[in-house]
């Protein structure tokens, strides 16, 4: 849940008047998303999401994110698309913050993950990776190995407060991943945060992929590693191989993967687990007292990381 | 913003299937309201509010609250009305909590208060007071003088942490209000929490009165005292007599008040300021570290209380 920017009713009415979407009927702050302030905006013409970009999202990245959504929506992916105001601009300003109105997607994110969800997520991820082939903008992945090292440095002295030995284990993992990180694999724009709360289903059918604010250029199969972590572990941190197989097969039937990508999957999944372990650890150690956002448990990702370290090959994921 | 109960998508779909409101299209947690978990529910037939009642609201009171909303909506007030399921019930259960689906009201609550808002709120409050004349249920006001004394007792030893001398000032105020509290004034069901975030406007016109979860039987003019506190002070805590006059005249043109009610208004407004001072003070001193809800400043209401104490007669409010 975001720390909200409270916008006034007349500010919103003036803002919306610059679009061809009718008069404002209702505006409700949404208790989802932690990076930005999101409102569900209802007008005479329908429902929209109004997003105010808070300082955790760099202004310079906004054309990439909005352009990516436009690109994906134009390719037919079930992706929210930025709405242009009458002046043609999608990125405007509200309450001294960058702001955009984005189309509303129907559906709910699944609180209880089923195998069919995993299969459809795999397929949708592959479609996304194919669709970005001709997307021209570029954004470096700030949360790759050098970024992980920085996070480790800023958590190193206090990591053992969370679990004794954690700092040493992370350091060893960073060294091993640096030595083993694959080179020469297909790259492109990845979603980088395709967790269940970013995927909508209407009934049993995937209806939306949202939240592109971590998207960046990276090894494509790394995104599959993120999804294995996000979708295929149960609440008790056990790995569900049936879900993994469904996810991976959903992906590979749409975008066939090379032997190199298959071989690299365990190390990519380890890297992805380490990335979420580190950001969660950072938030855990640095979150201010009384903050609105409750930090997530970093140790969930230590368990996932250890699982992937124990894996002998991508056969464990159904490949 | 509420501490949310997270309901699963399949639970909600099963719950909604018991109503004649079509299939679920979307469900978003709303970042408003602190007592309950509120979701904006969109179905094939329209928009609704799905409320899960959390433990701060007593189950035994729910028939009163839902019955009141039905009663007011039936009388034509712009009030959300509970939707009955096919079995005729409005109060049902979801995720082991009492839950209800309530009609959706268009409009936004005003972040910047104008005189016209105050005039319309006064009139709507009077209409509400007239409309409850034949409402048969009864709910005692837990936040009247005896309740204030209890709150004072549980804050007494720590009140001076917030401001030196606060405990003594509250004690003196309680004694004075007990001595001066009016008797024999017209009573009925009051809203008791008609703050700006509980009143919607569509353009400049009042379109909704929401949140009946503090409603109770009380002196009707006390509700006017609450609204004077909620609507007629500026952000710098100065009193805006023009807004007060508009509020009071909006009220009295719809429900004429007796000389006794007029004379009692300053003491009722003082009591109402003390009520919010005490509940805010309690929340301030007792709110758990890391809670999601940021407590509101109690001293805002100390300033309002002192203003009403300085008032010589209801003439200060435009009467």
Task: Summarize it.
Chain A is α+β, with helices and mostly antiparallel strands and 319 residues long.
Set out the fold topology.
The structure is a homodimer of 319-residue chains.
Chain A: H1 9-16, E1 24-29, E2 37-43, E3 46-52, H2 62-74, E4 92-94, E5 97-103, H3 115-131, H4 145-155, H5 166-180, E6 187-190, E7 199-202, E8 205-209, E9 216-219, H6 220-231, H7 241-252, H8 259-286, H9 299-310
Antiparallel strand pairs in A: 1-2, 2-3, 3-5, 4-5, 6-9, 7-8
Task: Describe the overall structure.
With 319 residues, chain A is of the alpha+beta class. Chain A has helices spanning 9-16, 62-74, 115-131, 145-155, 166-180, 220-231, 241-252, 259-286, 299-310; strands at residues 24-29, 37-43, 46-52, 92-94, 97-103, 187-190, 199-202, 205-209, 216-219. Chain A folds into 2 domains: 9-103, Phosphorylase Kinase, domain 1 (2-Layer Sandwich); 115-317, Aminoglycoside 3'-phosphotransferase, Chain: A, domain 2, CATH 3.90.1200.10. Helices cover 40% and strands 15% of the residues of chain A. A 5-stranded antiparallel beta sheet of chain A has the order 1-2-3-5-4, covered by helices on one side. Chain A has a two-stranded antiparallel ribbon with strand order 6-9. In chain A, strands 7-8 form a two-stranded antiparallel sheet. In chain A, α3 (115-131) packs antiparallel against α6 and α3 runs parallel beside α7. The mean pLDDT of chain A is 93. The A-B interface holds A 1-2, 4, 6-12, 23-32, 40, 42, 47, 104-112, 200-203, 289-292, 294 and B 1-2, 4, 6-10, 12-13, 23-32, 40, 42, 47, 104-112, 200-203, 289-292, 294.
């Amino acid at each position: 849940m975001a720390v909200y920017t409270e916008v006034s009713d007349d500010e919103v009415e003036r803002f919306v008047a610059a679009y061809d979407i009718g008069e404002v009927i209702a505006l409700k702050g949404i208790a989802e998303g932690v990076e930005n302030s999101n409102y569900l905006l209802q007008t005479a013409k329908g429902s929209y999401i109004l997003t105010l970009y808070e300082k955790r999202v760099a202004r310079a990245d906004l054309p990439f994110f909005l352009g990516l959504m436009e690109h994906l929506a134009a390719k037919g992916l079930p992706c929210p698309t930025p709405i242009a105001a009458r002046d043609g601009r999608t990125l405007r300003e509200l309450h001294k913050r960058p702001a955009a109105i984005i189309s509303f997607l129907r559906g709910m994110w699944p609180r209880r993950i089923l195998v069919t969800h995993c299969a459809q997520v795999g397929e949708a991820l592959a479609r996304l990776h194919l669709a970005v082939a001709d997307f021209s903008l570029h954004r470096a992945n700030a949360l790759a190995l050098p970024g992980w090292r920085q996070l480790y440095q800023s958590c190193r002295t206090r990591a053992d407060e969370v679990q004794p030995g954690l700092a040493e284990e992370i350091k060893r993992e960073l060294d091993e991943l640096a030595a083993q990180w694959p080179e020469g694999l297909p790259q492109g724009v990845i979603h980088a945060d395709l967790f269940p709360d970013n995927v909508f289903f209407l009934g049993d059918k995937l209806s939306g992929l949202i939240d592109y604010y971590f998207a960046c250029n990276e090894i494509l199969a790394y995104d599959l590693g993120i999804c294995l972590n996000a979708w295929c572990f149960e609440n008790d941190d056990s790995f569900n191989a049936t879900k993994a197989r469904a996810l991976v097969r959903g992906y590979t039937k749409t975008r066939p993967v090379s032997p190199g990508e298959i071989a690299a999957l365990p190390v990519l999944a380890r890297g992805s687990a380490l990335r979420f372990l580190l950001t969660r650890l950072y938030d855990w150690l640095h979150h201010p007292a009384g903050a609105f956002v409750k930090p997530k448990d970093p140790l969930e990702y230590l368990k996932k990381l250890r699982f992937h370290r124990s894996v002998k090959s991508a056969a464990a994921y159904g490949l």
